[in-house]
Amino acid sequence: MATACITGASSGIGREFAVQLSKMGYNLVLVSRDVKELKKLAAGLNTRCSIIPCDLSDEKACIRLAYKLRKYRLSVLINNAGFGDIGNFHQTSLQKDLDMINVNVKAVHILTKKLLPGFIRRNCGYILNVASCAGLLPGGPYMASYYATKAYITSMTCAIHEELKEAGSRVRISILCPGPVSTNFNRVANVRFSLPGIPASFCVRYALKQMFRGKMVIIPTLPIKAVVTASRFVPRNMMLAMTSKQQQRKQ
Question: How many Å apart are CA 178 and CA 219, to the nearest integer?
Fold first, then answer.
């Protein structure tokens, strides 16, 4: 039976990925710091679940995790773990910024780098890196670090997608770039979204459908698609000013 790994599986989108992939018949490898929540999740699923505790802000722990995951011969890897923060760049916590870079960027980079060769050798499988529509926009005043981390993942994933395509590989890598989703992201980032969040169940269902089709950039809703498209034609300074107004409403 095929196996899928989900990081940040203890809550939010990650939890929903676990639920939906389990219903599709995948055995699961669930990764998070919150072992208690992972055990509760696993107890309610009908497929075999392995639990691996990992602090994804710790680079060495991420490398150890990658070596552990190699034995599972994964069919699907969902790099979902991530968080944000809001505030003036000069006032927000440096430590929180660094932890964000470690989780949002370095952990995704390490797991993709270490596990992609196995996918390529097997010539099959799917990697989905969960970013945000923030990664497709010029920048985010008052969420500077978060936008920057998601831009990194978006750029890296799209580049790898083209490399695999040019090599004729059957491995598919995609980037999920939603707008607001109704999860506990808001609490961790201390934000209040001005737009209503979409249900995590809808976001994940759409993401999996598009991932299995091999789509490179996955944006679940039409309004966010419209914003991203418009950003290509609006001058950067104007787009930054518009984004700034939206971000200030979240504080």
Answer: 5
Catalytically active residues, by annotation: 146, 150
Give dist(CA 10, CA 37) in Å, integer. 5
In whole angstroms, what is the distance from residue 38 CA to residue 27 CA? Answer: 14
Residue type (1 letter), 29? V
- Helix (H), strand (E) at residue 126: strand 126-130
Q: Which amino acid is at 156?
A: M
Length of the chain as a residue count:
251
Delimit the domains of the chain by residue range. Answer: 3-250
Per residue in 145-162, pLDDT (tens digit) is 999 999 999 999 999 999
CA distance 81 to 116: 18
At 107, list the tokens: 């952990």
Distance CA 8, CA 158 (A): 22
Dist CA 100 CA 15 (whole Å) = 20
Strand order in the sheet with 3-7: 49-53, 27-32, 3-7, 76-79, 126-130, 172-176, 217-218
Domain 3-250: which CATH number of 2.60.40.2470, 3.40.50.720, 3.90.650.10, 2.40.50.140: 3.40.50.720
| Pairwise CA distance, residues 222 & 170, whole Å | 29
Full-model pTM = 0.89
- Given a cut of 50, the residues of the chain with pLDDT beneath it are 186-189, 193
